[in-house]
């Protein structure tokens, strides 16, 4: 089971911040007018809340130098629900002087109020000669309907720097700076893919992929190349660019890390190496039972495992589905996987029935999901008639599996539909925390908002507003 665990704990770079799935990447280049930065934003549209066929993300980006704001922009990005299966991309470019900068980014889903903050340091410097910029890893190059263009080349940034199951190649873009003192005719760029994230202290090894591009001597060259990813299994990798002279000496180098996630390929390989799988309990499960069992597992897996699980559910490969169920319970209870599976499914079916809301399985609703994720709450407070608020519930756990104590979850039903309770806020450090929850819960009392409406996070604590008192950490 060792290899299975390695697959499941794969980290997705720049992955989920709150409930907005986004990808953020920063690069530095040097143009005719001096240095500039590029800031790429990718949003999984389906993670945004929609109403009347549309959703909106507020995007604020600031660049600071010595605590002074050098650039600041605020945008409202509109997303149509009809396009929720496609990723939305944006890039910002800023001319900058040399120095140390801090990038501050805020993303907020206007309807759900889910938000994330991102901060990173960045150094802007006049490039040495010779030098190579950090390569931009791309999902596609020079195809129609791609979101970005540079030097006449269209491209799409690789979201999360993550190569998926069906992606047979990737591309990269970079710039090379070289003065005539180092070159009188041509030089070569060697591009290589190595196993593992870049680590300067590691000894060199043979690359998984390697290729070469000749460049004419020039003060600046733009480099673009497509690379096959065939044969790369799930894991961490880095793309290395090296500028070579005619004697193969390395003038300069740069790199970018990326990951490969190919659960079907990996699980087919692992299944073929596991003798017990072929005679395990999952072999007798129907497609309907497998789908039900996989969806019931979802609350128990973390963000990285969920990426794999979502792929397995969406894929039609029954062998992959069987192996995921088998491997999950084999890892959880090596001595008695079937007994552990059966006991859990009894609870899942009861939760399904209790929280059924005619939309999906009951354990796919927010309350059902959290019941399976954290177990039965130690106390449930139900409020159906509080002024200015829709029906809501507060679940209190004395302790959860992360070790946190006195953890509270607030669910509310703004639609007033049967069992249509949504998670609004919690005091859990590793779960949903919505600073504007009071404004959403008591939305029928807009005149009692405390402070500026745009930045407010609280509402007047009038008589009967028990949620404010109950959700305090103590």
What's the structural blueprint in terms of helices and strands?
Layout lengths: L1 H7 L7 E2 L2 E12 L2 E11 L9 E12 L2 E13 L6 E9 L3 E11 L5 E10 L6 E2 L3 E6 L6 E3 L2 E5 L4 E2 L5 E9 L8 E10 L13 E8 L3 E9 L6 E10 L5 E11 L2 H10 L14 H11 L5 H12 L3 H15 L4 H18 L11 H9 L4 E5 L8 E8 L5 E8 L9 E5 L10 H5 L7 E2 L7 E2 L6 H5 L4
Parallel strand pairs: 13-19
Antiparallel strand pairs: 1-2, 2-3, 3-6, 4-5, 4-7, 7-8, 9-14, 10-12, 10-14, 11-12, 14-17, 15-16, 15-18, 18-19, 20-21, 21-22, 22-23, 24-25
CATH topology of the largest domain: Immunoglobulin-like
Based on the structure given, which CATH architecture of the largest domain is correct? Sandwich
Shape: globular
Strand content: 35-45%
The residue fraction in helices comes out at 10-25%
The count of helical stretches stands at 9
Q: Which CATH top level class of the largest domain fits?
A: Mainly Beta
Label the structural class.
alpha+beta
Largest sheet: 6 strands, antiparallel
- Mean pLDDT score: 88
Number of domains: 4
Give unreliable regions as ranges: 1-18
How many individual β-strands? 25
